Amino acid sequence: MTRPKVYIARKIxxxxxxxxxxxxxxxxxxxxxxxxxxxxLHKQMGQADAIFITLTDVVDQELIDGAxxxxxxxxxxxxxxxIDIDYARKKGVIVTNTPDVLTESTADLTFALLLxxxxxxxxxxxxxxxxKWTTWSPLFMAGTDIHHKTLGIVGMGRIGEAVxxxxxxxxxxxxxxxxxxxxxxxxxxxxxxxxxxxxLTNSDFVVCMTPLTQETKDLxxxxxxxxMKETAVFVNTSRGGTVxxxxxxxxxxxxxxxxxxxxxFQNEPIGKDHPLLQLDNVTALPHIGSATRDTRYQMMKLALxxxxxxxxxxxxxxxxx
Length: 321
Ligand code: GLV
Hints:
The chain is of the alpha/beta class and 321 residues long. It folds into two domains: 5-101 and 293-311, NAD(P)-binding Rossmann-like Domain (Rossmann fold, 3-Layer(aba) Sandwich), CATH 3.40.50.720; 103-284, NAD(P)-binding Rossmann-like Domain (Rossmann fold). Helices cover 34% and strands 14% of the residues. Strand 9, helix 10 and strand 10 (233-236) form a beta-alpha-beta unit. Helix 5 (103-119) packs across helix 7 (158-169). Bound molecules: glyoxylic acid (GLV).
């Protein structure tokens, strides 16, 4: 019997693939630090029964149309805005993502970024490493308090809830906005549901964790930043597309808000000349929300398990519904 063809669009550790070597005919993009070329993915999708992709790979109608026998697109990410889900569904191709396994790590990073942006940790670290530390002074590197303040979470999914849980340890009040109300989260975490604008007006920290969709594209625009407090810190660990970066730049530059912590950008990767990186009140990270070794291994494992199940005619473990 011929073995199903599986294309792995990024080099991943052999130890994760070896359990499947006998069952699948595996082809793999040979680079870890370089995304697959679109033409190569197009070509491979024309022959593959399954593909393993990462969030850097855009799978649109054209690529899906080129697929002849594709059964599953396994995305190594919880977000799936890189895939034309509706079209894949129409063509009968299952799409899977990697929820749950990254929840806690991403919440940790989100909270770390909130702390770093508020307490100016990266700026202070650069200062000392550049040999600029000469004395102690009363308002030197003075940031803003987190404890007992109000945190506004936009997008109360699993990661949102995990961030709210951490906020409780800092004695924060938690407001949230979500497509649907979550009475369980309200009860468990004492989070209070509010409208989007009310959240912006009343929060000291606004954390964006909503998926990127047509509805959330540019959600954080000029008006949103104007509604925030002048002392507000904005944190984004979802997708860059939820933010209008020009509007954010203006808001940070003119003091409409105090600071931002950004793990994601509209067009990744960004170079050092990106306007937002020129601002002292921006703490920036290169999309590392889920980047711990444990979590990344679990994400890769889960994506492969999804492929395995679908190729065996079983239901995927974590299908995108
Ligand atoms: C990372 O951004 C993810 O969606 O998993």
